Amino acid sequence: MKVRSYKGHSLEKIYGSIREELGPEAVIVSTQKSGKRSLLGVVTGTSLYEVVAVVEETGVKSLAESGAARSEELHRMALMQAHKWQQFESSMDDMRSQLEKLSHRTLTSTLPPMQTGGALPEYARDWDPRFRECLLQHCPEALNEDGAAVCREFLPRVLKVTESFEVKKKHGPHVVVLAGPTGAGKTTTLAKLAAQWGLDQELNVGIITTDTYRVAAVEQIREYATLLGIELKVAFSAGEAARAVEAFADKDVILVDTPGRSHYDKAGITALKGILSGMGEVTVLMALPATVDRRDVPGILQHFGVLNIDGLVITKIDETRRYDLLTTTVCETDHPIAFFTNGQRVPQDIRSASMADAVEMLVPEEGM
Ligand SMILES: Nc1nc2c(ncn2[C@@H]2O[C@H](COP(=O)(O)OP(=O)(O)OP(=O)(O)O)[C@@H](O)[C@H]2O)c(=O)[nH]1
Ligand SMILES: [Mg+2]
């Protein structure tokens, strides 16, 4: 393992040097800021930063595991598990694609001509065909050219939202994990929830980050934690994650950040599952950007499904006006939408998912 210390006046330049010299796997261990202090203790003049970064020289291993042999054995076991899991997943993939083809054929063969013609109302044109089929069977008027009002009335029977996500404190802290694709908004959402629960509801909140893969990921969440005055623990392994949860036994709620993963990165998602397995009972919320192509939603939900998702957070709803992906999420999963996020501002750009919002997103009132 390489450990390097960097000094400079600009964090951006320091991170650049770390990235250049140690590569993207480097992990920031500490950042210290110093400067001349006036008599009243106020830092004056230009700040000087000292950043310590480490990187494994061969593969990624736990930083905190002290016994090298134990660490190697664990690493070897993890690789074997990942390999077995990949074999299992690829046979499942084959089965899934066969089933998808079959169900697609069955559905499209039963669709009446109206479904493929131009007579559908604007709002339903890009909806998941399975969703339209459901409407056609249970409330066909909802797909008439002037069916918006009927459709708005029917949608609450099929959409699933939490309305109000409750923090449960029955047997120790409620552990809430944010998982999902890269850049989906996990860390930002976590900071919004931490602020809402910690500041507005005055709950005792702790944050654990397991995202030790990217340079600056730990720094990003550390900044939020510091700003919010919330304790943060960094977990590099399943063992550390378990110990961090134990150490936060006095908290009402523990928010856990995870590294972003492409849904095709099965090994990465499996490794994440391993880390979470040490945390006991957890509620996993999956961040899914509203901007995602709805045709990618089945793959994302299937691959992240190994984490036992409990609910969805639809992020970035401010970045699009098309919410067809909601029709696919309903066809793919029973998990309710717990939150919508609608901007980059922490903490205000988040709200509990309401049925009224979900209906409005699919059939906007002005479209009537
Ligand atoms: N417009 C908009 N931007 C958002 C929203 N939520 C997050 N973002 C932005 O999306 C970008 C990525 O957000 P992060 O919270 O870092 O995403 P992440 O899922 O933690 O990313 P990784 O950890 O790299 O996988 C940042 O620029 C956020 O400000 C949202 O609701 N709306
Ligand atoms: Mg993040």
Widest beta sheet: strand line-up: 6-5-7-4-8-9-10-11
CATH class bucket of the largest domain: Alpha Beta
- Tally of strands: 11
| CATH fold annotation of the largest domain | Rossmann fold
Listed once per kind, the bound small molecules are:
guanosine-5'-triphosphate, magnesium ion
Element string (H = helix, E = strand): EHEEHHHHEHEHEHEHEHEHEEH
Low-pLDDT residue intervals, each spanning 5 or more residues: 36-44, 59-66, 104-117
The structure class reads alpha/beta
The main pleated sheet reads as:
8 strands, mixed
CATH architecture of the largest domain: 3-Layer(aba) Sandwich
Global Rg: 24 Å
Average pLDDT figure: 84
Cα(first) to Cα(last) distance is: 63 Å
- Total helical elements: 12
Fourth-tier CATH superfamily name of the largest domain? P-loop containing nucleotide triphosphate hydrolases
Strand content: 15-25%
What's the structural domain tally?
3
Walk me through the structure:
- The protein is α/β, with parallel strands linked by helices and 368 residues long.
- The chain folds into three domains: 54 residues; 70 residues, no CATH class; 194 residues, Rossmann fold (3-Layer(aba) Sandwich).
- Helices cover 40% and strands 19% of the residues.
- The protein has twelve helices and eleven strands.
- It has an eight-stranded mixed β-sheet with strand order 6-5-7-4-8-9-10-11, with helices on both faces. A three-stranded antiparallel β-sheet has the order 1-3-2, covered by helices on one side.
- Strand 9, helix 11 and strand 10 form a beta-alpha-beta unit.
- Helix 6 packs parallel to helix 7, helix 8 runs parallel beside helix 9 and helix 10 crosses helix 11.
- The longest helix has 43 residues.
- It is globular.
- The structure holds guanosine-5'-triphosphate (GTP) and magnesium ion (MG).
